[in-house]
Structures are given as structure tokens and as C-alpha cells.
Design goal:
- It is a single chain.
- Helix 3 packs across helix 8.
- The protein has 392 residues and is α/β, with parallel strands linked by helices.
- The protein has 13 helices and twelve strands.
- The chain folds into two domains: 7-256, Type I PLP-dependent aspartate aminotransferase-like (Major domain) (Aspartate Aminotransferase, domain 2, 3-Layer(aba) Sandwich), CATH 3.40.640; 260-391, Aspartate Aminotransferase, domain 1 (Alpha-Beta Complex).
- 36% of the residues lie in helices and 15% in strands.
- It has helices spanning 7-13, 55-68, 79-90, 105-115, 130-136, 160-169, 182-185, 229-240, 246-257, 259-278, 297-303, 318-328, 377-391, and strands spanning 72-76, 96-100, 121-125, 142-148, 173-177, 195-199, 213-217, 283-287, 310-315, 333-334, 344-346, 367-371.
- The strands form two sheets. The protein has a seven-stranded mixed beta sheet, sandwiched between helices.
- The structure holds pyridoxal-5'-phosphate.
Length: 392
């Protein structure tokens, strides 16, 4: 499958040749741990043991690499397992990482509670402000800049191309968590990132039925000392072993096939929900990169195809109103996670971001986050209107 093919063609075909044995058009679930060797060391197509490689996982890894335009993909049991593998593969004690000030809570927790006790230091920076990123760099010590864009749950936007320049000037690699935008809306590697990570649990899988992660490396990494990042990540994936299982890989691959059409519909629906929220008296602020008033709208317009399906907003009457509105909806599901076909609503301060309460990453208590699904948008808006009319 060549890079010249369109996104959906790659999503449906990359890594997914018809099965050699039967012609099955979808890669089978190779639910197997070990493989018969044709004589000692005589591996068939390199398969030896399923932690090291499994054909269903290989199909997913090839597909995600083709979608991100990278050299190689790696599939993990969760987004965080992938992130941990990247950090261990590329950092050693004494190194310093710049982390977003509104990173995914689990990402911040990882750097603060897991990596830090192992000697990897970090500073947090507002990634929406290029100068703040530059100021957070410790010359000679910063080896990684971690970017999420759009961010969760404040929908901040980081300028990937500008931050890649800053990271590379400092001798650091740029890792972009592309979970929110997905490979369909944004191509970090083409903008200069060295590694892309995903929680495929979200939009990539897209059906709230699987937890998974993916990592893709750039075709060429020029940061001195990191040219071999792909080999290091491959080695650590196998050595740590947090790999995606065959059925999980199959579900994620099935999700990816419809990523483009799902994202278009997520964006269509989100735009209409944003329009409704902007017109409601109970709402004091709508956070969406597609709004011209968003601080980095221009950057988002440059680096994203569209603005995604995540919308956050603040309730004029504060935390109590936000908590009650979340409970008053009926079609929207009160729940964590995001990116599935069904619409979700949540209160980040008490739910997804409760773990960052009291830190610099604490989120406003009047904030509600929506993962706008692909239902009929009129139904979604009618349900929201009912809740906001009572509690707004
Ligand atoms: C969910 C999420 C993660 C973590 O992924 P898991 O699959 O839950 O381990 C990382 N980054 C972002 C932006 C996420 O939304």
C-alpha cells in the first residue's frame, strides 16, 4: 500500500492483504501464542512467539504506520503502555521532559509518579504558548518534549511545527499524542514530530469496546542520539511486553476502517452542538478550536483538517450547575473516555481529572466535557437543551 493512496484506502487495505491460506478479506484473529518452526530457528514469516509478533497485531501496526505516514507502528495493550514504552526506550535517569500543563491526567500522573521516582525529571509548560515551551527547555538536559493537541479537557492547541523546531534545536525529540485529532485530522510526523502516540481506545477504535495504544516513529529522526528510536522502541516493546492481543488488534483494525467517515460526522455534529451552546444563556464559555475566538484557532486551522468531536464548556452558575446538568441528560451517557460512536458527557473536575486536583493541572470546577458522538445531532441537542434549560 503506497503512501500515495488516500487515507481511507490505506485504512481499509494497509497491512491487510487477503489471507494467503483462504483468501479471507479481513485479517483473521490469530489467537495463538506460539508457532511451529520448520527446523530450529526456521520461523515462518518471522513468527516465533506472540509477544514478539502476531499476524493480527502486525496488520494493525502496518495500518497505523501507513495512516500516520511513519516508518513503523507498534500496538500496545493501552495508550499508557505505549507511552511507558516510549519513555523507557528514549529516556535515562537524569533526562528532563517538558510536559503540557493540561496533559491527559494519566500522562501527567505517569511523569509525576512513575518516571520521576526513576530519575526522569519534568517541567510543565503551556504548549499553546511557543515561548513558554522554549523557556521550559533545560539546555543539555531536556531530551523530550511531549505535546498533546488538542488537549484534554481544555481543547488547547499547540503549534506542532514551531515546537518541533524548538525541541530539535535543543537536541530533544518531539512526541505528539495524537489521540484527540486522530491520524485523519492531523499528521504530526509531517509537521516535524519524531514519534506519535495514540490511545486507540478512543477514536481509532471508535466503538468503546476495546482498550489499546499505538506508537508510530518518523521515517527519519535526525536528533543526535535518537536516530535509532525505532529500533529502541521495538526492543522495548518486546522486552517490556505490554502488547496488544490478537482480538484487541482485530477490533482496533476494524474501527480504523471507518475512521474517516466517523470523524467527518463527529466534526459535523460537534460544530452544531457548539453553535447551540454558544447561544445558550446558561453557558459562559465554549472551548472548541474551531471557534474563531479560540486563542490558537489559526494554528488549529493550519494543522488540522477539521476541529474534531470534543467540546468543553463552562457553566455560568458554577460547579453545582455543571454537576446537575451532567446528571440531567438522558441520551448523552455520563461516563469517562471519549471518541466512541455514542455521545458522552462528564465533569472533568470530579471524574477524568480528579487525579490532578490540587496540582497545576487542576481544571475549572464549572467545566463540562462532551465527546460528541455520531447519533442524529438534533436528538443530541434536544437532550442537552432540556438539561441546560433546567440547570443553566
Ligand atoms: C485515554 C488517553 C490516554 C491513555 O490511554 P489508555 O488507552 O487509557 O491507556 C492518553 N492520552 C490521551 C489524550 C487520552 O485521551
Amino acid at each position: 500500500m503506497s503512501d500515495e493512496h488516500g487515507f481511507s484506502t490505506r485504512a481499509i487495505h494497509a497491512g491487510q492483504e487477503a489471507d494467503e491460506l483462504t483468501g479471507a478479506v479481513v485479517p483473521p484473529i490469530y489467537q495463538v501464542s506460539t508457532y511451529k518452526q520448520d527446523g530450529i530457528g526456521g520461523f515462518r514469516n518471522g513468527y516465533e512467539y506472540s509477544r514478539s509478533a502476531n499476524p493480527t497485531r502486525t496488520a494493525l501496526e502496518e495500518c497505523i504506520a501507513a495512516l500516520e505516514g511513519g516508518s513503523r507502528g507498534f500496538a500496545f495493550a493501552s495508550g499508557l503502555a505505549g507511552q511507558d514504552t516510549v519513555a523507557r526506550a528514549l529516556l535515562v535517569p537524569g533526562d528532563h521532559v517538558v510536559v503540557p500543563n493540561d496533559a491527559y491526567g494519566g500522562t501527567y500522573r505517569y511523569f509525576n509518579k512513575v518516571a520521576k521516582p526513576q530519575g526522569i525529571e519534568h517541567s510543565i509548560a503551556n504548549m499553546g504558548d511557543v515561548e513558554a515551551v522554549r523557556a521550559a527547555i533545560r539546555p543539555g538536559q531536556t531530551k523530550m518534549v511531549w505535546v498533546e493537541t488538542p488537549t484534554n479537557p481544555l481543547l488547547g492547541i499547540a503549534d506542532i511545527e514551531a515546537i518541533a523546531g524548538i525541541a530539535h534545536d535543543a537536541g530533544a525529540v518531539l512526541v505528539v499524542d495524537n489521540t484527540f485529532a486522530t491520524a485523519y485530522l492531523q499528521s504530526p510526523l509531517a509537521l516535524g514530530a519524531d514519534v506519535v502516540t495514540h490511545s486507540t481506545t478512543k477514536y481509532s477504535g471508535g466503538h468503546s469496546d476495546v482498550v489499546g495504544g499505538a506508537v508510530v516513529t518518523a521515517t527519519e529522526i535526525r536528533v543526535p542520539g535518537y536516530e535509532d528510536a525505532e529500533e529502541r522502541i521495538a526492543f522495548h516493546q518486546n522486552s517490556i511486553g505490554g502488547v496488544a492481543g490478537p482480538f484487541d488488534s482485530w477490533l482496533t483494525l476494524r474501527g480504523l476502517k471507518t475512521l474517516a467517515i466517523r470523524m467527518e460526522r463527529h466534526c459535523d455534529n460537534a460544530e452544531k452542538v457548539v453553535e447551540f451552546l454558544e447561544g445558550h444563556d446558561g453557558v459562559s464559555q465554549v472551548l472548541y478550536p474551531g471557534l474563531p475566538g479560540h486563542a490558537n484557532h489559526d494554528v488549529a486551522a493550519r494543522q488540522m483538517k477539521r476541529f474534531g468531536g470534543m467540546v468543553s464548556f463552562r457553566m455560568r452558575r458554577g460547579e453545582d450547575a455543571a454537576v446537575k446538568a451532567c446528571a440531567a441528560v438522558s441520551l448523552w451517557t455520563l461516563g469517562e473516555s471519549l471518541g466512541g460512536v455514542e455521545s458522552l458527557i462528564e465533569h472533568p473536575g470530579r471524574m477524568t481529572h480528579a487525579s490532578v486536583a490540587g496540582t497545576e493541572l487542576e481544571v475549572p470546577s464549572d467545566l463540562i466535557r462532551l465527546s460528541v458522538g455520531i447519533e442524529d445531532v438534533d436528538d443530541l441537542i434536544a437532550d442537552l437543551r432540556e438539561a441546560l434549560d433546567i440547570h443553566g
